[in-house]
Amino acid sequence: MERCWWKEAVIYQIYPRSFKDSNGDGIGDLKGITEKLDYLKELGVDAVWISPFFKSPNTDNGYDISDYRDIMDEFGTMEDFDEMQREMHRRGIRLIVDLVANHTSDEHPWFAESRRSRDNPYRDYYIWRDGKGENAPNNWQSRFSGSAWTYDGQTGQYYLHLYAEKQPDLNWENPAVRQEIYDVMRFWIEKGADGFRLDAASMFYKDKGLPDGALGRGSVGEEHYQNVPAIHAYYREMYDQVLSRYPELVTVGETSGVTVEEAKKYAGFSSHELNMVFQFEHARLEYVNGDKYNLRKVPLTQLKEVLSRWQRELNGTAWNSLYLTNHDQPRSVSHWGDEGRYRRESAKMLYTMLLTMQGTPYIYQGEEIGMTNIHLDSIEEYEDIQAKNGWRELVAEGGADPKKFMDVIHAMGRDNARTPMQWDDTEHAGFTAGTPWFTVNPNYKEINVKESLEDPNSVFQYIKELIRLRHESRVAVYGDFTEFAKENEALYIYNRSLEKENLLVVLNFTGGEQSFRLPERMRGKKSELYISNYENDGQMGDRTLRPFEAAVYRWRE
Ligand code: NOJ
């Protein structure tokens, strides 16, 4: 397999609004990021992906851009960006910019023009249609509740928005739109970007004729705009016109709904489109029939089936991006571990898994100290537009059970990951000298960076060691993946192998003791410890695993 920097890298995701406020306005900013670069260097990450920091009215916290070439007021200035970029590069940390190109803000000048008249030169930058009688042009639903269409009285037509009303979808069929986006990419490459994370990257192509969607699974209409085969022509063009000119650049597409087969098309080693994609299968296992407001408990065997399948199927043909959470997902320790008694053990166990799989690991801010979900009592205390719109549609207007709705928000809501970063045990967790834009998780007194740096047994120290080991270990990055005891509902066991080098990974996903039987072909082999979250002598063998124990052994064939 061809070696390259982004396969061997560990990437850290920053949600700037909640990372570090430098000027006391309660909102994180670019100077705040610059202040904390030594911290990231200490952790050992190679690159940072920063969620959008461009001009935005913040309907969706920056995922609604009104100027692609300027900095959001709350986050600072272009000088702050230049300084941050310089300081990152001085420390050998690369910068990945979030490219939000499926839609803009309705306050973007293109849209302001577009909505002015039917014959405006920018009209065709967006997707405008006549209604069907009194109704919207089709039955597609917005990801943020309600119809995906909004009627604009000025010109008597509807425009499409797969997200909020203030996030109109760009019309990628229009070559002028694609050229605009390529120019934006070139602009940020010139300014020092080393890569892009492409937002809503599976949604750019909308089926011709915009047919009605089938009812009953996921967001209505998604089969007509998500991973439609014709999208690949856009990516090949983007590659020809932009990406191929910058061979060191990295790209990762946020491809919701992607299957293994489609991932190989977007990110195959010879497909000349993107380098990697984020898949969502493991993150959405709870959803009953794709419905994010109807959750079930997921057996471990199903989580393992998804993760192992992606490991096996992409091996040798495409590259995985590995993540446990991001700014749209619950905290990993609350989701798959134990945020109570075994918080540390289970957080360490989960990151042992992430950093011993094939692919590029992404660590979301705060995960390295084992931050947990937030539990707020009422919907008014939340900020996320998805949660608020969901409440309005389902509870306020639809009569759904408020308690059940809040249970879903507590378990899966996006704000779980958006509480301010917990730097120390002083007021507001040291995030801001002012009033934080969103509630700080009250557990910041125990869970914070300061404590984590001082305690040799902290989650931080453990993840730092995992990163260090991964940088030294080619088998951890490139090795083949073989799973054992697939039907075991408590343990995840797999081996990584490269030539004669091996890593056996044993993970206990429960808060109880579990017995582990060493796979036959490893019996009698000598081993040493790679890492463990408990005391461990390093010799592989049958044994009892402690709650949420992770043990990784290095052995030779
Ligand atoms: C995916 C982003 O991760 C999410 O935060 C955002 O709301 C939507 N795309 C729309 O841009």
How would you portray this structure in words?
With 557 residues, the protein is an alpha/beta fold. The chain folds into four domains: 5-104 and 175-378 and 418-465, Glycosidases (TIM Barrel, Alpha-Beta Barrel); 109-160, Oligo-1,6-glucosidase, domain 2; 379-417, no CATH class; 479-556, Immunoglobulin-like (Sandwich). The protein has 16 helices and 22 strands. It has helices spanning 5-8, 30-35, 37-43, 78-90, 109-114, 175-190, 231-241, 260-267, 300-314, 332-336, 343-354, 385-396, 402-412, 449-454, 459-472, 474-478; strands at 11-14, 47-50, 54-55, 67-71, 94-99, 128-129, 149-152, 157-160, 195-198, 250-254, 276-278, 287-288, 291-295, 321-323, 360-364, 480-484, 491-498, 501-508, 514-516, 527-532, 543-545, 550-556. The strands form six sheets. It has an eight-stranded parallel sheet. Helix 11 (343-354) packs parallel to helix 15. It is globular. The mean pLDDT is 97. Bound molecules: 1-deoxynojirimycin.
Task: Give keywords.
557 residues; TIM Barrel; Oligo-1,6-glucosidase, domain 2; 4 domains; five-stranded antiparallel beta sheet; 16 helices; binds 1-deoxynojirimycin
Total discrete domains: 4
State the shape.
globular
Largest sheet: 8 strands, parallel
Percent of residues in beta strands: 15-25%
What's the end-to-end separation, in Å?
A: 20 Å
Strand order of the largest sheet: 11-10-9-5-2-1-15-14
- The structure class reads alpha/beta
